[in-house]
Every structure is written in C-alpha cells, then in structure tokens.
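Please discuss these two lines.
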Amino acid sequence: MNDGGMFKKVNFTCERLINEMEDSLRTMEQNSKEQMLPLFEQMMDSYEQLEMTALTIEGYRQKGNIKARLTRVKRELQDAKTAVEFKQFEKAEEMLEHHLIPALKRFQEGLFPK
C-alpha cells in the first residue's frame, strides 16, 4: 500500500479511537461508571492498532514524529485507565476531554496539513 493509502488507514483508525473516547465521555456523563474499565481496555486495543498502522508510514522523520506523539497519547491513556481502576472517574474524564481527544485530533490534523 502506498503512503497515501496508509495515511488514510491511519486517519480512519485514529477517527475510530477518537469516537470511542467521545463515547466513553458520554458514558461517564450518564453515570455508567461500572462500564468504564471495559471501554478503556477497548481504547487501549484501538490505540495499539493505531500505533502499529501509523508506524508503517515511510520516512524516518515522519515516523519519529508519529512515534513521539503516539507515545504521549499512550502514556496519558494508561494514566486515565489507571484512574478508572482506582475509581477516580473525574480525573479520567478530564484527561479524555482536555488531553487525549485534543491530542489525537492534533495528530490527525498533522497527517493532512491544510
């Protein structure tokens, strides 16, 4: 697959992860806290798929930039999951809303600069 096709695949995978995060926020707002851990586990799986797909893009400079951005996202996603495990739902919600979703949207925009 050429780089254009890979960028589209990465974009699609990133969009799916953003949608999962937004769905998790809605679930939190509906006070369905017991459903949160499985949702975070699903987000971690989606993140892993995003990382594997994104790192197939050619170019060392591009690959290094992608790896750095995704490493920050992974760290924050793990921290949010840990917050859910310790029933700190407000902290997890804040991380999703103010850090993770905006970071993924910036990453996605960086794939297709205007």
